[in-house]
Known about the structure:
This protein is an alpha/beta fold. The chain folds into two domains: 8-212, DHBP synthase (Alpha-Beta Complex); 238-313, no CATH class. Helix content is 29%, strand content 18%. The protein has nine helices and 15 strands. The chain has helices at residues 13-24, 46-56, 71-75, 82-91, 110-113, 127-136, 156-163, 269-285, 301-313, and strands at 8-10, 29-31, 38-42, 65-67, 96-101, 118-122, 140-141, 169-172, 183-187, 193-197, 211-212, 238-239, 249-253, 261-262, 290-293. It is globular, with a radius of gyration of 19 Å. Bound molecules: threonylcarbamoyladenylate (TXA) and magnesium ion.
Amino acid sequence: MSGKQTPTVPADAAGIARAVEVLRAGGLVAIPTETVYGLAARADSEAAVARIFEAKGRPGFNPLIVHVTGVEQAAALAEMSPETRHYASQHWPGPVTLVLPRRADAALAPAVTAGLDTVAVRVPRHLVAQAVLAGLGVPLAAPSANRSGFVSPTTAAHVLETLDGRIDLVLDGGPSDAGIESTILKLRADGRWEQLRPGPEDTANWHDSHFVQGAPLPGEAIEAPGQLASHYSPGKPVRLAALVAAEDEFLIGFGVVEGDVTLSAGADLAEAARRLYACLHQAALSRLPRIAIAPVPEQGLGIAINDRLRRAAA
Ligand code: TXA
Ligand code: MG
């Protein structure tokens, strides 16, 4: 590993002001959000957005989520009917991304939407992310702040593990609270919302007629293009539903299964989600060549956790 090149600043008033300045000039800044750290650039700048793809090694067909201050800023990018505005206001700010028809006059670099006629938007709940967005006054494109395919970052240190020297600044706002990426819901032509990616929002009990769970079968066309089977890779073989570790395995525990580290000794799924990526980062850094992970129940937040674990193992 080369020496540190990307500065990290605390997310105080001075740090936020510096982040805004770097972003305004077209730079790349890793910012904290309530889900995971995002690699932000102004969404209206072709050059700035191109740098995101380059820094991450992200394929150009994979579109980015645009972060905005609220419904009004979103409505300048996406077609939003009164019903859509109402729906959005129920979830924002928060860890829910809405995929909406893109406005023809949206001030977005074309690469943000990767040629699609839709745009993914969300209003983060994290106060630091909100302060950066408000200070800049321009929407921010921000994928997770990791090299493409690697484990997502929930701390400033995680960001530097794969992006040190490739981006301009890390704004350190402490560990992310939810710990997994936003729930993605797409507005369908029939007016219903289809879940493209499970996330911190527990949608398992949403039985209203405006929502469809949307479980794409393996091999079916991928609707959220980033949802490739192999993703979130810690760079080692991963074995799921393990009760005991083999000699060469680093065990990530849950509940009664004690590990080298544990997602949650008390079997609390919110704690497990918050700690998921930190545990995978620790497993990746361990000298042991393999990773084993205890079973996590497929219910509530466990659905999103298992979605990420299956991809880590793929
Ligand atoms: O919580 C999050 O969503 C974090 C934070 C930083 O906001 N961001 C994040 O970005 O997870 P990323 O790039 O790792 O995942 C974005 C996902 C990808 O699967 C991408 O394909 C999908 O959103 N996506 C973006 N625009 C889309 C669109 N127009 N239609 C369908 N899927 C879209
Ligand atoms: Mg990602």
